[in-house]
Structure formats: structure tokens, C-alpha cells
Amino acid sequence: MESVARNARETATSTVVGVKLLAVKTTLRRRVGSRGHELLRRAGRLRWRAKYREARRNGAGFRERPWRWLRFILFDPEFDNFTYEVANEAELVQFLQRTLGTGQRQLEQYLAETHTDPGLTTDLWRRLRWRLDYKRRPPLGRRATWYVLTRALKPELVVETGVQDGLGSLAVLRALARNAEEGSPGRLISVDTLPTVGWLVPASEHHAWHLMIGSSDEVLARTLGVETVGLFLQDSGGDLELARRELEVVLPHAVDGTVLVSQNQRPALASLCREHDIPYGEFLHQPRDHIFSGSVTGVGVIGT
User: Fold this and answer.
1) 302/304 Cα distance (integer angstroms)
2) Can you give the pTM of this predicted structure?
3) How many Cα atoms within 13 Å fall on the side-chain side of residue 208?
């Protein structure tokens, strides 16, 4: 019982710290502007002090795995919003099987597609090979879950808040493209406050993608109209109040089977699910060979 209580306290503390860090990052993004934000990201490989602090915050020590530690500090272009291989894919399939009720083999097939789809592998790698500010072969990490959800749900409309480079958007769009090939077309609406986001999405995917710039709750309120949202992906920064407003805007457009996903603002989704008696669960993506301690995804499924 003591260990359970201690883990609960640690989880609550890490959530509060994470929310505060996101608020600070959001404030800095507003002050430096889109151009300044882009320059900071392009200097990622040289931000050794920031990466050192991130490694310490994630509990990564030099003595345990010195090469992994040094590789991240000296050479990795990412100092936040990490990409990584998911080490516990089998557990992810089991979580989604319980959450969605979809067959295990089907989910395994969808997850395998994230490793072989040309738009997420060879085509993407070809476009990144000369960029020094990004990994040449970025794995999807937690965004693989978004791909699998999109493939399993076959939604006509996916809504995403928080775009940044657009790797998550690309994953969803590739899943939608495969759905369309199977007779279930869909589209993606993405919202962010910065006009420079989404550069990873190639022009060939833009026909199913509507990128909107502005405050997410306001943009969604005037955009959704009578639309039905099959999958909502909340990956924006900001604070819990904004996250709550986003969810309250989207909820009236949900139907039985709609899935709500939150990355950075899980407490807002967990609270909303409790209030509306929506089943809610969380999954920890464990990175393989990375200093990052892992990303937790919150999932609520309406009507189950």
C-alpha cells in the first residue's frame, strides 16, 4: 500500500511539474515569436546544457549507460518532443485491444505498418537526410498509437491540437490514406498557434489535411459546425484550462465510439471522463535506448 501511495504521489508531482514546464514553454514561444522558435529548434544539437538538464530530469545517469548519455548530449538534435522506438509494443497492443475491443492480430498489423509505410520511412528519410536539425530516421514513438487508433477506428474526421513539426499529423494522414484505399476515406483538422508548424507533412498529403492557425478552442468552436469527430488528439501545450475548453468544444461532436486522446494535459481529460462516466485509461510508452523516461497517453472512449 505504501508503494502504491508513493507512486501516486510521484505521478501527481511529475504531472504538476510537466504542466508548469509546458506553461513556461508556451510563454517563451509567444515572446520569441515563430521565427525565434524555429531558430531555437534548429540549434538543438548545440543546446548541450538544455539536453544535460533534460537527461538529469529523466533520471538518466552517465555511469549506467555512458555512451547513450553522451550520444544524446553531444549529437541528438532533439531536446524535447522526443522521437524514439517503443520498447513495449506488445503491451501497447494489449492496451488498445482492451480499450477498443479490436482483435489482437489486426492491431499488430496496424502497428507493423508504422515500420514499413513508405510515407513514414523511406520517403520521410529521403526528405530529412540533409537536415542537421532533425533525426534522419525519426521513429514515431507515442505517435504510433495515433496511427493505430486511426486505422482501427476508420474515422471520417480526426481533430488534432498541437502540431509542432508535424510528425504526428503525418502519421495520422498516412493512416487515413490507407483507410481510403480500403474504402473508408477521412480527413484531419490540425490546430496550432504558430504558422511555421507542420513542415514535415509533404504536399502529397495536403488534400486530406486542413491546418488552421489560432487559439485551439476558438478555432474549433467556429470550424466544427455539425461535424462528427471520430478521434480527438490533444497534444497542445498551454494550461489545463485551455485543454478543458478544447475538450468541451469537441465533446458535443462526439458519438458512440469516439476516442479522446491526451498527451500533455491528461488531468483535464481524466477529469472530463469522470464527470461524464467515460471509461478512461493510460498507457506508458517505454523508449528503447533513449534517455527519455517515457510518454504517458491518456485515452477515453465514449459509449463503451
Assistant:
1) 6
2) 0.82
3) 26
